[in-house]
Design brief:
Blueprint lengths: L5 E10 L4 E3 H7 L4 H8 L3 E3 L7 H19 L7 E5 L11 H7 L7 E4 L5 H14 L5 E8 L10 H4 L5 E10 L7 E8 L7 E3 L20 E3 L1 H23 L8 E4 L4 H10 L11 H4 L6 H12 L7 E8 L3 E8 L7
Parallel strand pairs: 4-5, 4-6, 11-12
Antiparallel strand pairs: 1-7, 2-3, 6-7, 8-13, 9-10, 12-13
Helix pairs in contact: 3-4, 7-8
The protein binds oxa(dethia)-CoA.
Oxa(dethia)-CoA binds next to helix 2, helix 6, helix 7 and strand 12.
Length: about 350
């Protein structure tokens, strides 16, 4: 029997739009304050794309950087599949990934989007890993990219305070399950009974926006923040525990927990629920806010740059988002340089 093929992380790239919007900037437009946003979320600023910049623009930048990172750290096969995790595609159809693959010059490759909101990057990793394990692909570019500024209600202080735009990507290659960077168990879940807690009501097939209906349409992202908060804590803690157990690691021997960056209070509550020191959970949201599907690769790159995530570290990833969806995964961190 052929040896099992694992998907190995061999490149990491990120991109943030240059425009920074601070809490004080928001407070000039909305009934909010730097004090409220910092104390309730831990966020100090976010990056917001200029008008005319689409999710694919951010995804292409991050994808290019991940390819460069992979080229410097490993001998890789050419990327032969592209997955874009996003809930803010350039258009309702077609998917954003084929255009991203074409702009990256990757030729005729399978390319498709994964729609699992803030859990999208983990779903994308699972699907990319599956393509490699099945032999369908040898090397997969998995990009998480979102431009939430394009779907937020300008007057909604609770969502504008937390979300920012950005993109992050990894290159997966076929490799050995025991080598650093090999994806371990991936836990995925969803519970559609909570689908109304995070959604855009209008603009889909349930409530198409037609010119004669624009008055009652609601094209903006809506979130029942407090209920989402509670679910996020429960699900990320549970999924992380399951992933670590399935990897055969002791919880205490797991060095770094990279949690989706939605709210610092959520990250701390997950750490507390798991009875782990909060210091094992790197924080990046203070500078970028909640970047949805881009959050995990962005915090990974930031933690590597800060020296908090080093080669050999036993690492757990966890995310939660609309759907409701959630997931967790493990890997031993490889020796790669984020670009
Ligand atoms: O990434 C995908 C999943 N998303 C998440 O995990 C996000 C989870 N939710 C959250 O992070 C928090 O629920 C929020 C940051 C969105 C809101 O914080 P909260 O502590 O749950 O506040 P709340 O929604 O319960 O609202 C409490 C009060 C309300 O005022 P009233 O009705 O009590 O007068 C809100 O209007 O806080 C008010 N509020 C604000 N006040 C000042 C909400 N946002 C703001 C704001 N500035 N930016």
């Amino acid at each position: 029997m052929a040896a099992a093929r694992a998907a190995v992380v061999c490149g990491l790239g990120t991109h943030l739009p240059s425009r920074v919007v601070t809490n004080s900037d928001l407070a000039r437009e909305l009934d909010t304050s730097d004090e409220w946003i910092r104390s309730r979320t831990g966020i100090g600023q976010r990056h917001i794309a200029e008008d005319g910049t689409a999710t694919s623009d951010l995804a292409v930048e991050a994808g290019q950087r991940a390819l460069k990172s992979a080229a410097t750290s490993a001998s890789t096969d050419a990327v032969d599949a592209v997955i874009v995790a996003t809930s803010t595609p350039d258009h309702s159809c077609p998917a954003t990934a084929p255009a991203v693959a074409a702009r990256l010059g990757l030729g005729i490759v399978p390319a498709f989007d994964v729609a699992a909101m803030c859990t999208g990057f983990l779903y994308g990793l699972a699907v990319g890993g599956g393509l490699i394990a099945a032999g369908t692909a040898h090397s997969v570019l998995v990009i998480g990219a979102d431009t939430y500024s394009s779907i937020l209600d300008p007057e909604d202080r609770s969502t504008r305070a937390i979300f920012g735009d950005g993109a992050g990507a990894v290159v997966l290659r076929a490799g050995d399950p025991d080598e650093p960077g090999a994806l371990g168990p991936v836990i995925l879940g969803s519970d559609g009974t909570g689908s109304e807690l995070i959604r855009i009501l209008s603009g889909g097939s349930r409530d198409p926006i037609r010119p004669e209906h624009t008055e009652r349409a609601d094209p903006y992202f809506r979130m029942a923040g407090a209920q989402v908060f509670r679910n996020a804590v429960e699900r990320m803690a549970e999924a992380s525990l399951e992933a670590v157990a399935r990897a055969g690691w002791a919880l205490d021997d797991t060095d770094v927990f990279v949690a989706h960056q939605a709210n610092l209070r959520i990250i701390h509550a997950v750490a507390d629920q798991m009875r782990l020191p909060r210091s094992r959970f790197p924080v990046h949201l203070d500078r970028v806010g909640n970047t949805a599907a881009a959050s995990i690769p962005l915090v990974l790159a930031d933690a590597v740059t800060a020296g908090a995530l080093r080669p050999g570290h036993r690492t757990a990833l966890a995310a939660f988002g609309g759907g409701l969806t959630w997931g967790a995964a493990t890997l031993t961190w490889p020796d790669i340089t984020p670009v």
